[in-house]
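Technical appendix A lists one of the benchmark inputs used to test multi-chain prediction within the project. The record comprises three sequence entries:
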Amino acid sequence: MFGYILRRLLSAIPVLVIVAVLVFLMLRFTPGDPAAVIAGDNASSEQIALIRNRLGLDQPVLTQFTIWAGNLLTGNLGESFFFKKTIAELIASRIEPTLSLAFATILIAVVVAIPLGVLAAYRHGSWIDRIVMGFSVLGFSVPVFVIGYLMIYVFAITLGWFPVQGYQPLSQGFGGYVQRLVLPSLTLSVIYIALIARMTRASVLEVLNEDYIRTARAKGQVERKILFRHALKNAAVPIVTVVGIGIALLIGGVVVTESVFAIPGLGRLTVDAVLARDYPTIQAVILLFSGVYVGINLLIDLAYSLFDPRIRY
Amino acid sequence: MSAEPTILAPVVAERPASRRRIFGRLLRNPSVAIGGFVLVVMTLIGLLAPVLGTLDPTAINPSTRNKVPGFERTIRADDGSTSVFKHRMGTDSLGRDVYSRVVYGARVSLMIAVTVALASVAIGLVIGLVAGYIRWLDGPIMRVMDGLMAIPGILLAIAVVSLFRAGLAAVVIAIIVPEIPRVVRLVRSIVLSVREEPYVEAAIMAGTRVPALMARHILPNTVAPLIVQGTFIAASAILVEAILSFLGIGIPPETPSWGNIMAEGRNLFRVFPHNILYPGIFLGLTVLAVNMLGDGLRDTLDPKMADR
Amino acid sequence: MMSRWKIVTAAAALLAGSSMAQAQTTMKVVMHSDVKIVDPIWTTAYIVRNHGYMIYDTLFSMDEKGEIKPQMVESYTESPDKLTYKFTLRDGLLWHDGKPVTSEDCIPSIKRWAAKDPVGQKLMTFVDTITADDAKSFTVKLKSPTGLLIFGLGKPSSNVPFMMPKRVAETDPNTQISEFIGSGPFVLKTDEWKPGDKIVYTRFKEYKPRSEPASGLAGGKVVKLDRVEWLAVSDQQQAVNALLAGEIDMVEQPAFDLIPLVKADSNIKLWTYNPLGLQYTMRFNHTQPPFDNPKVRQAVTYALNQKDFLEATVGNPDYYKVCKAMFVCGSPMATEKGMDGLLESNFKKSQELLKEAGYDGKPIVLLHSTDLQSLTNLGPVAKQLLEKGGFKVDMQSSDWQTVVSRRVRKDPVDKGGWNLMQTAWVSADILNPVMAGFFNASCDKAAFGWPCDEQMEKLRDDFAREPDPAKQKAIVEAVQLRWRESPTHVHLGQYDVPIAARSNISGILTAPAPVFWNVEKK
């Protein structure tokens, strides 16, 4: 087991290295010139050249990469071209909203989607099933920002239940924190609910057809017990997997949701950094997101092999 | 990273004789029928755009901007004659006719969907075949794919868009790139499992050449899963295009795509919701139709993938 | 536990005395952009200028009538030959770290500003020496007389000559400063500043305002707020939504199309704080064909008209003005000399000129930015008008940052270069031909677009040397006539953006930049 975990951990390293190289190369070929953006409207060509020189942008790409990678290995993410802060600081100040949003979304999604999926599977072919499936297809078909605007229009503007925008750190009170988190995480959870409900339904359906469930039923066990003790337990593995796969989806959604609700999280940081051609920040954030994605999937892999003793790699 | 526990088991290639039966079965599947019907209608709308009572979708008219649906405008032709044009869906902030943009938008959005689906499937197929067949390339290719897959799709797309000059091609490429690794994995897994099949091993033993082997045994097995995968890619392409436009890095805003019309109107959603509503309905309906079609195709063509 | 807490709060209230008895007034504002860079000398971005007005002070400042008045300066003397100026600072000026402001601080501040700012650069060609006389006074000696000295030190908009402590002001002009200490009425809370989220200022309690009432940027900077927070909300509509919901107190630049929504709400008041407003501009790239040919540039001046641009971007005539005067309608240098027949969409004339110039029909590259609400609609209008005027236009859309980085490239069009781009200037920056950066026609040294016109440069030099306003006006007329022959850029009309604030906010000053002293929240 230990050897397996170690091997899986090691196998994640080349992936991250490849991500780093890909991201670095990609950004260096972009047409935008951060020096010109930084210098502002009235700057002369000489001033821009000076800034370019100071940022090290006039050095060969390989040199730039070596410096960056070297710093990275020592844990130094570098300094943002724009914000006059280290990237570590920037990320630290932006991580709370994004984590909160992600957790709230997953929480809502799991709480809503799994019962829905189980119900749909249990009542396979009924109107409940159709509604759940219909919703799950629909959830995939509407852009996140449209959902966001509709939510704001209905719940914030018309009904006035929630603030229209913004984020309040947990340290400033739990009430305000939750109040401002509800609409964005509801918005973001729609697509996630669709995904998980579908997966749950499918997995439970499969399990329900297994022999041992039939046996349990034949033995006269209570249906609810069958559903939750046997079916859901065995369907847990694929469900957990889809939660992991959905992380990428979630990260994509975070970028949009944070823009709509003016939440100062990592998603907005990424968009701002891309628009400003803030190379070091983009690199660091994409690397971070990729690391999270790889890490979560690694955990799920490991969990998978723990839960399901049949699987050995 | 290779944690997809459910390796998509391929169906053994169907024989040609059963093709008609499949087609009949497909049409009887309600998802396929409804989804297909909606898509045919949308395609027709796109193709027939010039004769559907539209104006030039890029012609601006600052004096009649932000008009609500139903607004009537007098148009003066070059020869001095006048006619009245009714803006069925209102106008946007440059005075462009939203109805015309939505109708022409069907062209652009569907074109993006089809292009992205075909291109990512084709590229993914080639890379997947190479990875699955040439053993020593398998490792490096799959590591790069793992790397690409580890970058969240939207972020990758944003990065790719910023690579090129903003334009249709850049956006299409930006949407294709993140889709490729998924196709590659699918194809590779099919190749790997088909290779193990006794009849394929027999064919290899008998000295069948690689191209023939591919054409006869491997490619046919990829068709059904790739069609299914392709439809889902098409659906997501339409959505990603809209999101890129929303973030302000999509195709040139002049080009009428549903995403662009919505992005243009989003700042005025509260005062002029029609700018988001109409293209939103068309977009939602189309994506819904594509998704339904995909579900239906999967149920029929690829029963083992069904319900996933 | 409970009772102990009560005792602590009670004690704190007692200790704090009566001033704390009142609630802290915090004003939450959405400005037009997020503050990312905080060096107002290093960049010209308007948001950084606004930040500068929060934490820094200026030697002179412009009042509501456009006159330059002393601000940090108590008094100054001018020698009869107009070559020697002696300035004395006011008493009681302090940096935010509590140290007194001295002339040793002001001299490097002036020098750093003059190294970056176009007016400052021009000014320095006149300056012989700047020397400190004592801690509170310094002397400027000129080589020849110029009106630029006082005008420059009171320059209201980017770059503003803000005063910084000596150690900060001695930073290389091309390096950003890393310490944010000023002597202005607000203090930057560096620990609460989160780029992309918010920037926080608190009242500088030791600030000594002038005794005169506030007028424009001049007069006493009396702060009536304890705390000002600028929030970064990138979505225009969300900013207005938040204002309507009372979550914030003010939006600096509400989108024009959302103004009816704001107007309909009795809790919101609109303030036209910057009557001179802004001016839309189209810039030619003079280094690339076809705009290296003055005839082709003239064709553009005939093909365009201001109304279409203003209608498409602003839409509401209350907030725009068709104005052919290049140096801003309503300002002393406003004149329509040389403008007859231009900017009236005379497509025939434009086509004729193109024919004469031998324009080959090669598409011209128009850079179009799509993410700044106020600029987005300019591109399509320009395209349509120019095409009617006989041009072929290739409108290339991208985000503003890409436009900014492309417009500084002199490469040929097919190698990433450009022909035309559009932007907006705050009127306060373009009140005469020396200030207005786009009239700088000194070839490579000019701003992007790089016009090269000796005659124009000669006129600008004359203007800088001419202290008499009447004669200045004559030079301005000559400038516009020369411009007609060889246009450097085209002005596309004036507009102004009102501030939208909750009705409990009062005292917003009429000035070229939004400032927060004198503002009250009830």
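Residues 1-21 of chain C have pLDDT under 50 and may be disordered. The longest helix of chain C spans residues 469-485. Comparable benchmark entries are summarised in Table A2.
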